[in-house]
Amino acid sequence: NFSDDSEEDVHLTPPKKIIKNPTKHRAQKFRSEGLRVENLKKWLVPVDEDPLKAKCKLCNFTMVAELSKIKAHGNGKKHKQIEACKEIKQKSIKTFTTNKTPTKLDIDVKMAEIKLTAFMTEHNIAFLATDHLTDKEELVSYLKTVQFSILTDESPDIGTVKSSCVILRFFDSKSGKIENKFWDLYKVYDSKNPGNATAEKLAI
């Protein structure tokens, strides 16, 4: 009958399996030993606000303080690229300068370059025109054989010192066109020595 079948079914039903709760992963605190590992100490630092976190100071990246996660980050492509860039040492600016005392010639050359640059800037002269600067002896030898014109213009600097730029214009048979060559930059007028501002001074 129905009651007998029910009792038989009870004995045939297998017992239920008891599923145990899985063990929760235990978070690890940052260990200072990692700061002494050769390939970690260059970039690994602790996070003061959270003892369960670690930080890569190269990538500015925060991660859990597990050793496996830290090593995985250190072997990552992005981290290795940043690390390689940091290892390239930039030259100090001191390597581009010298401590030797400049000679009078060095000072004169520097002043001439500054004045020439200022003159070209003020008069909106293309810097490509500096390609026409040439050796004076070679230019003098050539000018003895051709006709040429002298162009000059003066410009005062912030110290009220007037300088005159002298340009020579002539026909160059090599290039087949009229050329302009820089000759020199002369000091024409100085507020401290106004008597020097004469035509004779400029002609010299």
UniProtKB/TrEMBL annotation:
Superkingdom per UniProt: Eukaryota
Q: Which PANTHER family match?
A: BED-TYPE DOMAIN-CONTAINING PROTEIN, HAT FAMILY DIMERISATION DOMAINCONTAINING PROTEIN-RELATED
User: What name has this protein been given in UniProt?
Assistant: Uncharacterized protein
Q: Which classification does the entry list for the species?
A: Eukaryota, Metazoa, Ecdysozoa, Arthropoda, Hexapoda
